[in-house]
Structure to design on (155 residues):
């Protein structure tokens, strides 16, 4: 049996991060987690580019531009949509998720979804570098793994 598995080796890879500024204190921690984990996995800091956008709703269009630029091997999408803070939670969260998924399918490079969708600020904080880990760091690992597994499957 031929098994495809992605290695967690970021050496030589270029990664884009798109981050929604809404709930910035939380999202800044996701960005920090992603950047730190990418570097630990061997990605050169100069090979990471970061774009800030107003909110999670705007993440997909900039993720698409980055993915189409040929400057990056993967795009990590970060944001925080908190139900208690908005009446249009379902629209913003739904469009962010569907948009990022579509960009991945259309571009052919991994587009990783790290937009927190939580019921409360507390839950978001827990996932942004406190008791439930850091979603940005998890996304960094997913990005590196996906680059390699996709390359293996399409080789
Ligand atoms: N954007 C977020 O990233 N998180 C939120 O919780 C949020 N709330 O609460 O509304 C939010 N709204 C802004 C949205 O992403 C767009 O920037 C805005 O609608 C302009 O298109």
């Amino acid at each position: 049996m031929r098994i495809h598995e992605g290695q967690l080796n970021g050496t030589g890879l270029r990664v884009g991060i798109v981050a929604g500024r809404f709930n910035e204190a939380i999202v800044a921690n996701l960005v920090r987690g992603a950047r730190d984990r990418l570097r630990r996995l061997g990605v050169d800091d100069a090979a990471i580019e970061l774009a800030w956008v107003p909110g999670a709703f705007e993440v997909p269009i900039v993720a698409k531009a980055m993915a189409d630029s040929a400057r990056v091997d993967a795009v990590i999408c970060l944001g925080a949509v908190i139900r208690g803070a908005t009446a249009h939670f379902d629209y913003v969260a739904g469009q962010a998720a569907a948009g990022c998924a579509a960009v991945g399918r259309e571009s052919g490079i991994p587009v990783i979804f790290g937009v927190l969708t939580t019921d409360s600020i507390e839950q978001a904080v827990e996932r942004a570098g406190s008791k439930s880990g850091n979603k940005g760091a998890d996304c960094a690992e997913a990005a590196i793994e996906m680059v390699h597994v996709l390359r293996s499957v399409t080789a």
User: Anything to note?
Assistant: The chain has a mean pLDDT of 96. Residues 13 and 43 are 6 Å apart (CA to CA). The chain is about 45% helix and 20% strand. Residues 20, 22-23, 54-58, 79-82, 85-86, 88, 92 surround INI (CB under 6 Å).
